[in-house]
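Late entry, glutamic acid complex.
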Amino acid sequence: MIARRIAVPLAGILAGSSVLLTQPATAGVSPPVEKRPVAEGYGGAVSTVDPDASRAALEVLRRGGNAVDAAVAGAAVLGVTEPYSAGLAGGGFIVYYDARRKKVHTIDGRETAPRAMTSASLEGVPLDEAVTSGLSAGVPGSVAQWELALRRFGTLSLRQALQPAIRVAREGFTVDRTFHDQTAANAARFADFTSTARLFLPGGAPPPVGSTFRNPELAETYRLLGRYGGRWLYGGGLGAEIVKTVKNPPVAPGSARNVRPGLMELPDLRAYRALERPPTRTTYKGMDVYGMAPPSSGGSTVGEALNILEALPEAGMHEYLEASRLAFADRGRYVGDVPGVPLEELLSDGFAKERACLVGERAMPHPAPPGNPDGAYEPCPAADPAPPTAETPAEGPETTHLVVADRWGNVVAYNITIESTGGNGIVVPGRGFLLNNELTDFTFGPAPGDPNLPGPGKRPRSSMAPTIVLADGRPLLALGSPGGSTIITTVLQILVNRWELGMPLPEALAAPRATQRNTAQTQAEQGFIDRYGAELTARGHAFTLNPEIGAATAVEFLGRGRLQAVAEPSRRGGGSALVMIPAR
Ligand code: GLU
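Prediction complete; structure with ligand written out below:
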């Protein structure tokens, strides 16, 4: 029974115990708070990259909201404080453990391509032109996802869930180094759009670190969204403004940028639906690992790699890299928003055993060909004749992930994104938010047979991997990360660190990372190269430096109601982990 596991005085929580007096009385007001990467305690937990978002989500929990309420409220705040990673015009995936029904659900809020988009629409478009364009803007999914999540599993209305974000947008938040640097990195393209420059380059420059950044236009947009509901976006007035912006971006006079217009029309917005989908499920070391099904490749790729690791006699860093390489070969070949993705076979033990055969003492030759998830498995088949997979399209290093656990034992792992840092760089005039450029996650082509070519109404393949692990049917761990296709390896590596190498969760998150995605070289942080480089190079691995991989958030259930919320100690400026009642 979940209820038995939460051994805290609920009356105390509801009344506001002395412990809670250290928390602000109202959500979203933002005097600077210390960011802590680890918090342990009882009664509920939150981890995000941002203290304002974590605090808002915790406050929702404190007032009796559940994990879904808090996750939506937190995501909306991230749309204010992390506007280059998340926002109402983006998309994402929610994996949710429902304690009452003892069931894992997922909600797909992935953006869709307009109906006018075909498999040839992105062919020949230079990536950098696609990144900053109307063409790459997908039909936003987040608002529909929030509404569906709240309706199905929450207790708050959208209007209520948006209140903390409205306050933060109105009253402002303190600009930190990350926000400043992300603005500076985007300054050239932001300056090319009148609406974006006006909002994010006040006085022509990025807001200085330590200043207060207010976004009253976004506060008003959220307020009206709460009042009119998602219909305002999905076919109403806000939708019309989005379509106008996508088709006729507000390019600054004198800008030399070639800004391709988009194909989105109002009926595309009207047709959008967030979708409930069955989660992916893999058993691993007696635990059940639940993830996100297509159009994300997160669940199938993490799951397949875990199965391969289980089929090997040992699982260290060499095996982690090789399992990931193989799983990425299959991801590229088979996974996309298409009918007939062989999900069950990709996640079968038989297939994993066949794939595990290819893992030897030395790194396998590049590229690893995809396997044959056809249900007929041999111990060690000859190499598959199928052509190698297309190169993984470049995916931006941004997005964000949050976890929430509530006093009832419900758990949310939620990835939200606008794709690139700063999305497509185009703010909808007067509305305070950036559009996404998620459609750059499609394979541009020509690539006959690739499951991830664009198509009308299609959702681009994602790597987002919000993950919930159950043991004996109870939540044990929830985690996720940003980082484009490195999301998959970050989640996988944290699980390997935790369960194969026995690291406690804070260490498993903080440990230096490497990412092998069926590429000739493995990207790795310097700390990883220092720790494992010599041994792995001797086994045929080659490394290139990636200064920072991922920005994970997680929560572990330690038993007897004790929760450990964990965020990054230093990547991307460090995250913010909070619990309702801190343990002494
Ligand atoms: N667009 C990416 C994906 O869906 C997420 C954004 C990122 O982290 O780059 O996989």
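The two ends are 25 Å apart (CA to CA). Will revisit in the morning.
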